[in-house]
Amino acid sequence: MTSKPCATEVRRPSGTSLFISDLHLTPDAPQLSARFEHFLAGPARAADALYILGDLFDFWAGDDDLNDPFNARNVGALAHLSAQGVAVYFLPGNRDFLAGADFATAAGLSLLPDPCVREICGMPTLLTHGDRLCTDDHDYQEFRAEVRTPTWRTAFLAQPLDARKTAIATLRNTSESEKKRKAMAIMDVNPDAVATALRQHGAQAMIHGHTHRQGQRTHDVDGNTCLRWVLGDWDSNRSSALACTPTGWQFLKLGDT
Question: pTM for this structure?
Answer without folding.
Answer: 0.92
